[in-house]
Amino acid sequence: MSYRIAVLASGRGSNLQALIDAIAAGDLPVRIAGVFSDRPDAVALQRAEQAGIHTAALRPRDFANRLEFDAALFEHIGAVQPDLIVCAGYMRLLSEPVVEANRGRMVNIHPSLLPAFKGLRTHEQALSAGAPVHGASVHFVTPELDGGPVIAQARVPVLAGDDAATLGARVLEREHPLLVESLRLLAGGRIRLGDAGVELDGATLAAPLQLDAAGRLLASS
User: Fold this and answer.
1) Cβ contacts of 145 within 8 Å, gap of 6 or more
2) 170-204 confidence digits (pLDDT tens)
3) pLDDT score recorded for residue 9
4) Which pLDDT score, from 0 to 100, does residue 107 have?
5) How far is CA 109 from CA 106, 151, 154, in A?
6) Which residues have a catalytic role annotated?
7) Global confidence as pTM
8) Mean pLDDT (whole number) for 202-214
9) Which of this chain's residues are annotated to bind N(1)-(5-phospho-beta-D-ribosyl)glycinamide (predicted)?
10) Residues 197, 22, 78, CA angle at the centre, nearest 5°?
11) φ and ψ at residue 165, rounded to 5 degrees
């Protein structure tokens, strides 16, 4: 049976499209079992439907609170029996019960070099801080916002004259291969969340893997 992933997305779904394209090209040995959203009008759902992927969306306003919404959404997710849940541009905080129930089985891609610049508006944060380097991270999801152990990162230089739009566009270009390569390692059973942090081939990583110019994930030197 192929490695099954469920994708959570709230927006345009460019990272989802990168996964769809990599799978179609035979470059990523996974199956997207479903795409789920908190926004029924999310472009990500349209991308999934065009690719023949199961979708489901629930509206938070139809539920009394976050716990009830998350329980209902994750009931849909559980029905497709994913091996891994991938948050790719999902913009809602997840409640602790669903996070703990899926510990080690849920990852997120975040547009910063964690632990720097958690939360929203990361490109603005990086520019305001005068950071010389920015980027993206794939990490395991824990109850702490953007605080789970980091699996891999892609670095992007901050250039003179950058604004949030130009910097964000360059980061996004690197997010796509970063997510694909991270999922390749996860699907192959090479990456897991151990007691001491992220493990690669059974050994705990001292630092996140880094995406090189050729799109390969390498251990930090």
Assistant:
1) 93, 118, 119
2) 999 999 999 999 999 999 999 999 999 999 999 99
3) 98
4) 98
5) 11, 10, 11
6) 110
7) 0.96
8) 96
9) 13-15
10) 60
11) -70, -45
Encode pLDDT of 81-106 as tens digits.
Answer: 999 999 999 999 999 999 999 999 99
How many other C-beta atoms lie within 10 A of the C-beta of residue 190? Answer: 13
Write the CA distances from 116 to 67, 86, 103, 193, integer angstroms. 28, 21, 22, 21
Q: Which of 202, 188, 77 is nearest to 141 (CA)?
A: 77
Mean pLDDT value across the chain? 96
DSSP-assigned beta bridge partners for residue 141:
none
Q: At what angle do helices 164-187 and 14-24 cross, to 10 degrees?
A: 40
Rounded CA-CA distance 106/193 in Å is 10
Copy the structure tokens of residue 65.
């609170």
Query: Starting at the edge strand that comes first in sequence, how are the strands of the sheet with 217-218 ordered?
Result: 55-57, 30-37, 3-8, 84-87, 106-110, 133-140, 150-157, 209-211, 217-218
Pair of tokens at residue 53: 């992927």
Whether the CB-CB separation of 97 and 143 falls below 8 Å is answered with no
The yes-or-no verdict on residue 59 having pLDDT over 90 is yes
Tokens standing for residue 127: 């520019």
Residue 220, amino acid: S
Q: How far apart are the C-alpha atoms of 39 and 217, rounded to whole Å?
A: 33
